[in-house]
């Protein structure tokens, strides 16, 4: 058992005291885990746009002060009463959407929105698996689970950061024959191609021509599936309007601080607009 089990410990943390304010590096106290809780020593972490979304004051459920961050990997330091699925020393990924297997959400195959247990991965390199806590699982799952990309399809991915690249990976794994990456930073294109993108487009290279028109012309009518991994209402609309009439589906992954809109005809003519949380994944995947 850890020497610190059952004791209050001190840690260094980047504290967000209020929205839109700089983070403050401080020493904080962390209480021992209570019943059903686990205290984890974080070894590696990624940075998610959701944290910036909360810090920017765009999350109605965001509470301050807070230590932001949810995309990590670490080692179980101690556990609270009733915890039987992990033990001190286990390597874990503290996913932000766990699974209890008991509630109505866990028992319903249509959703993944539960809040309890943690996933164990004893031998995985923590500086890599930390990304499974959000970014990779979200993007990859958006293609595989939410859109259910089909072999031979054409896909468009807006935003070629970590989440967008994971979408590209998912589309490739699903058998898409054409994967178009869209980003205003052309420096990302080489990496995107290494992940499976077949085409890369920078909207800045096309002047005043809307990117949806560019994509429609490139694909002879639009993509079968598009994904928005930026968190911008304008690119969300562009991704939808780049879908093929009659069957195109557009998946929103990013969080936008503003409302989204499109002309009703885009939906009436058969396009589908949907969202995804954590790629509809769960802790047992």
UniProtKB/TrEMBL annotation:
Assigned keywords, A-Z: Metal-binding, NAD, Oxidoreductase, Zinc
Required cofactor names: Zn(2+)
Domain Alcohol dehydrogenase-like N-terminal per the UniProt entry, residue ranges: 35-130
Keyword Transport belongs to the record: no
Alcohol dehydrogenase-like C-terminal domain residues: 162-279
Record-linked PROSITE patterns: ADH_ZINC
Signal sequence interval, chain numbering: none
Superkingdom: Eukaryota
Similarity comment: family membership: Belongs to the zinc-containing alcohol dehydrogenase family.
Protein name listed in UniProt: Alcohol dehydrogenase class-3-like
Provenance organism: Priapulus caudatus
